[in-house]
Write a structure and sequence with these properties.
six-stranded mixed beta sheet, single chain, YbaK protein, alpha/beta, 5 helices
């Protein structure tokens, strides 16, 4: 059902954006980069976080890591990653397919400035083998996202880029 809600989102708001599906899993940054022919940095991973009693989404460059000090300052509290069940309940999307599109209920979406270096990024699209190609600014516009600086600078040499797209 999740990829269908993403398709419905784009049918209504941006019919020119195509949901792409791969025969292989794209549930991690590394797998997604391989499946869709981009670098790991060009994958837009969605972090599902709880800050106090609020749930929010932060979309970042695939190789970026959340900087807790920056995030605490921006969001007014300590961020905590949602577990897989909490993330599914909050977004309607499974781990590895979490994205800011076609959400079960509206959530605040934030886009990290780490994505601004790219003309196009590849976020998940509601399942562990789907994605879209979209400009970071258009993604922010379509999801009413606010631009924030809450990540450490991306490091291409990171070895932990195999974490799920939503890093849960």
């Amino acid at each position: 059902m999740s990829v269908e809600s993403v398709r419905a989102f784009f049918a209504e708001k941006a019919p020119d954006v195509e949901v792409l599906e791969s025969d292989q899993s794209s549930a991690t940054v590394t797998l997604a980069a391989e499946a869709f022919g981009v670098t790991p940095a060009e994958i837009a991973k969605t972090l599902s976080l709880r800050v106090a009693d609020r749930v929010l989404l932060v979309v970042t460059c695939g190789t970026a890591r959340l900087d807790n000090k920056k995030a605490r300052a921006v969001f007014g509290g300590k961020p905590r990653m949602l577990n897989a069940e909490e993330a599914l309940e909050a977004t309607g999307h499974p781990v590895g397919g979490i994205c800011p599109f076609g959400l079960k209920d509206p959530l605040p979406v934030y886009c990290d400035v780490s994505m601004k270096q790219f003309t196009e990024v590849v976020p998940a699209a509601g399942s562990i083998n789907s994605a879209v190609r979209i400009s970071p600014q258009r993604m922010a516009d379509l999801t009413n996202a606010e631009w924030v600086d809450v990540c450490e600078p991306p490091r291409e040499s990171r070895t932990s880029i195999t974490e799920p797209l939503n890093a849960n």
